[in-house]
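cron nightly-structures :: item 1 of 1
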Amino acid sequence: MKNPFALALDVQRRTWEGAAEFAEKSGVAPDRAETLNEVEVGQTPSEVVYEENKLELLHYEPRTDEQHDVPILVTYALINKPYILDLQPDRSVIKTLLEEGFDVYMIDWNEPSELDRSLTLDDYVSRYIDNCVDVVRERSGQDSINILGYCMGGTMSVMYASLFPEKVRNLGLMAAGLCFDDTGGVLELWGGDEFYDPETVTETFDNVPAGFLDVGFALMDPVANNVTKYVRFYDNVEDEDFVENFARMEAWLSDGIDVAGKTYEQFIRDIYQGNKLYENELYLDGTHVDLENIDMPVLNIVAEYDHLIPPAASKPFNEKVASEDTTVMEFATGHIGMSVSSRSHAELWPDVSEWFEQRSNGEVSAEPEEPEPAEADAALAEDAVADETGAEDLTDGGSAVEVDSGSIGDDETAGEAAESDAELDAATDSLGDDPSESEIVERSDDDVQEEPAEPGELTVDEDVADELVEEDLGDDEDDLTDLSGVGRAYAEDLHEAGIRRFDQLAAADAEALAERTGIAESRIEDWIEQVADR
């Protein structure tokens, strides 16, 4: 039998320890309250490059000297702010993609007004997303781009890829709701047509309030959302990093946005209740969203413990599309964890980046035939110039650029081919009018490899290449991408404004150049300062 005096003393000891712990935690409470109020989110630098109605298209500053050929447009859901993908510097999907060399854009839908109640899925997909895609295509000089859609944004991205397949190079989906046929999801059960009438909600509110949606999401796991997380906060209140992370997540959760009434009705009726997207029966404004049109590479990123969009609501989709290049990445995390957890950034996102990288760089697809000696010498001279000027290998009379296993050469228009040929002609003008093979051989005689090259391995001595380029092209243009913050897209904007050399940029008026290019004046001033310091 336990000594009653010892029991009393033990109770007293634990009481004093609890009081001491409370006092210690209370001491840091003012500092932690300040952290909760002042925490920052979405800190990766960006600028708005396009606006329409409430929508803003963000373009993020590059973080590498060179970017992959094909940019990424991130499309998030309509019910929350998209900075969950850029919640904090060390757990930012946007920052990770930038550091992997991607040119990144993201749509910020912002909140619809009462006048936007009649906006439909077709407005969001065929108008808003399409306009943003066209802006990114124009700025990047690419006919098609990568799209990465998260949650409801992934569902809309699938619709877009079906309707405009020629504009989508690769389609990435994160926790996207695509299949709703007894998948085990609570939202699918609650949203069933025998239980739920979306028109009743929109008739009451017009646009569906963010607070109404928040209550529903919180009730999916009421103990975790209303009790457990606050207990954990109390237990870790002395840990400033934990409090900062907690504050950022709470800021995002409380920053919901309303959903346009008509779009909400369509999404519940057609996607959740009718399962029309998965059954290939969905129409937007009379146009069939045909999954057979989705023939580009598809990456389906699935969270194993996702209670909003369980794996069964995403994974079967890959079997419904026409693409022969489909991938599922299933990771042991939740719906939000895939974008904010440290494990996701350490283990999942490197794989995602590699998947996009393999499909976002142009590669020479055709293996050249082994040339005759004289032809090899001529090819060396032409390749030296083409490599330095950025011209594609058009010596076979057409484009030979390939992305993954599908060549884009067949899709090149006659005008584009002519333009590329003209660039190559301009680069080789100084070789003389219609130079003979012997003349070219004479100029490059010392530069031929001693041993015959294997197909695809033809090389040129770098010193000779530099000499040829200097002789043929002169010194009329600087590589503006050498400046910090100037990627290929910005360099092209500056070229169009007549800025091709560092001295021209140094002499430019920042305000006037900003008006001509649409680039932020502060950014141009920074570049001018960099040029002055060179």
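cron nightly-structures :: done
The mean pLDDT is 77.
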